[in-house]
Amino acid sequence: MVGRSRIGVIGTGGMGGRHARNLAGSIKGADLVALMDLDHERASALAKDCGGARVFDDGFALIRDPDVDAVIIASPDATHAELALACLEVGKPVLCEKPLATDVETAAIVAQTEAKLGKRCIQLGFMRVYDPAHLAVKEALDRSSLGKPLMFRGVHNNLMPGRKRSVADVATNSAVHDFHSACWLMQDDIETVTAKHVPASTEEPDSCRLMLIQLAFKNGALGTIEVNADSGYGYEVTVEITGEHGLVRSADYAGVTAWHSHKRSVEIPPDWLVRFERAYIDELHAWVQALKQGVVTGPSAWDGYRSLAVADAAIRSIDKGRPEPVKTIAKPPLYAS
Ligand code: ISE
Questions:
Q1: In degrees rounded to 5, what are phi and psi of residue 313?
Q2: Which of 111, 113, 126, 278 could be bridged to 301 by S-S, CB 3.0 to 4.6 A?
């Protein structure tokens, strides 16, 4: 793709709206040319805000449109896989928000379909790999002064008052970020998962307020991940890696510290859009630059599938009350590197 890339965004809620505004604002080399949402009014208002993109009522029509070069999928989770498959069908590059699918079997179909094409089209929206705080941890690990990584700790605190969440939703919609971060930073796959949860209410045992997940990596390293569906105070994501010679922890959110009425307070973000504001811009900039080179370089459909395979093991572990193996298909050669 040589000239400016013409991007269509499917889904104009929080995430899709952010991608659209970023595209229309600070991303060089690309233009927002199309938007799709079942909420036509919301999509039209966003199009007006973003300089007049065309508005579609059908995501598949947007994907097939000859004046759309590449697609961002930011619609509800359950639509991601079929829309990604439609992009593969017409060979259009796609930045697909996580999760790749809402179940591991469907995610496998998407990854295998792309693998059969023999060319990467899909990038997954695991934006933490573009987050300065996570990158600083990665760089510290790459300097290898810490020695061999032995333990991963992830804390993922959401703030979603009043939103009832199930075990499957927390595992496939939220924890997939942490599973991907763990594999990315530890440079290894997860072999076994032991998960437990605190229900949001005792009358609904499948509801999930908090999930605690223990990981056993293939190389013998360990991990723990806490996912809190509603922290009650704010939105925070931290990672910490223990190595043979020390440990590295991600820096806290660099918010404002305020002194007032005999108190000192530090700003804590309300959600991921604020906490990862920089990461979303850098993710989109990197994706667009790769489009111009005719390649896809960020997290892959295999990363999306693998994180759902871990989520599936966590769901089975909670259901059966025991450690569960991570079951995956054979890794296609397309994802070998
Ligand atoms: C949301 O969809 C995201 O992707 C956020 O990054 C994550 O923190 C949140 O739990 C998800 O619901």
A1: -65, -35
A2: 111
User: Residue 18: what pLDDT?
Assistant: 98
Write down the residue that tokens 């919609």 correspond to.
Answer: 173
Choose which residue among 19, 177, 231 to substitute to test ligand 1 binding: the one with the highest number of ligand atoms within 8 A of its C-beta: 177
Query: 177 CB under 6 A from ligand 1?
Result: yes
- Evaluate: CB of 157 within 6 angstroms of ligand 1: no
Residue 128, ligand 1, Cβ within 6 A: no
DSSP string, 10-74: E--SHHHHHHHHHHHHT-TTEEEEEEE-S-HHHHHHHHHHTT--EEES-HHHHHH-TT--EEEE-
For the record, the structure tokens of 84 come out as 């990604």
pLDDT value at residue 1: 46
Quick one: average pLDDT of 14-43?
Answer: 96
Q: What number does the ligand 1 atom closest to the CA of 237 have?
A: 8
Q: Is the CB of 158 within 6 Å of ligand 1?
A: yes
Q: Determine what percent of the chain falls in helix, strand and coil, rounding each to the nearest 5.
A: 40, 25, 35
pLDDT digits (tens, 9 = 90+) for 298-335: 999 999 999 999 999 999 999 999 999 999 999 999 99
State the pTM of this model.
0.97
Question: What is the amino acid identity at position 265?
Answer: S
Please tell me if the CB atom of residue 317 comes closer than 6 angstroms to any atom of ligand 1.
no
Kindly list the structural domains of the chain, giving each domain's residue range(s) and its CATH number in brackets, ordered by start.
5-128+277-300 (3.40.50.720), 129-275+306-335 (3.30.360.10)
Predicted pLDDT at 2: 58
What is the number of the ligand 1 atom nearest to the C-alpha of 174?
10
What whole-number distance in Å separates Cα of residue 283 and Cα of residue 280?
5
* Contact of 163 with 181, CB cutoff 8 Å: no
